[in-house]
Amino acid sequence: MIRASEESEDKLRRISERRRIPPVPDLRFEYSYTRSISPYVHVERVPAPPSGKGKEKAVDGEEEQDPLAAAVSSGEVIRVDWGQVIWITTKDQIISPLVQGALWGVASHFLRPLGALLGAHVRGWWAKGSRKSGDVPEGNGAHWLRNWIGSILTPAPATGAFHR
Predict the structure, then answer these.
(1) Region Disordered: start and end of each range (predicted)?
(2) How far apart are CA 150 and CA 144, in angstroms?
(3) What tens digit of pLDDT does each residue of 58-86 get?
(4) Which of 62, 97, 128, 141 is least surrounded by CB atoms within 10 angstroms?
């Protein structure tokens, strides 16, 4: 009993190793927008000038600064290239959606009649078909569907040494 479960686990592991699919990419706007503007936003850490507050005298006579006081007193300077950030924001929020909408509008203008034509051909093929006994019309689609279901439900003839 244990051997069968080990074999099945091994088989499942081999199947899962073969079917490695890549992870779903992160397509959220915030991530791609932040990545787009990151070259134009610069953060620089500036240490604060030394002052008498927050310093303690060490035993050996050297001055030692409190780490918390150093973190609070240090600052950051953020430099932003606003022209580039505004251009990227305008491109991502206004221009891209406008162009995509226009392209979909033009494409749908041509694709809608094509879809209707294709649908008419498929409906015509589905309805047109042969006549069975009794003059009952049966379309190609119904004939194909009946044959397909019949091939699934009809058992295959027995072959081999077990049946004589």
Answers:
(1) 44-66
(2) 10
(3) 444 445 555 545 545 568 889 999 999 99
(4) 62
pLDDT digits (tens, 9 = 90+) for 41-55: 999 888 766 665 555
Average pLDDT for the chain: 76
Token pair of 44, please?
A: 């620089």
Whether residue 85 contacts residue 41, with contact meaning beta carbons closer than 8 Å, is answered with yes
Sequence-separated (6 or more) residues with CB below 8 Å from residue 125? 140, 141
Q: Do the beta carbons of residue 43 and residue 75 sit within 8 Å?
A: no
DSSP sequence for 4-66:
HHHHHHHHHHHHHHHT--PPPP---HHHHHHHHHGGGEEEEEEPPPP-STTEEE-TTS-EEE-
Query: Could you tell me which residues come within 8 angstroms of residue 44 by beta carbon, excluding any fewer than 6 positions away?
Result: 76, 77, 78, 79
57-82 burial, b for 16+ CB within 10 Å, e for fewer?
A: eeeeeeeeeeeeeeeebeeeeeeeee
Helix (H), strand (E) at residue 137: none
- Residue 56 near residue 66, CB atoms below 8 Å: yes
pLDDT digits (tens, 9 = 90+) for 27-36: 777 888 899 9
Alpha-carbon gap, residue 146 to 127, rounded angstroms: 14
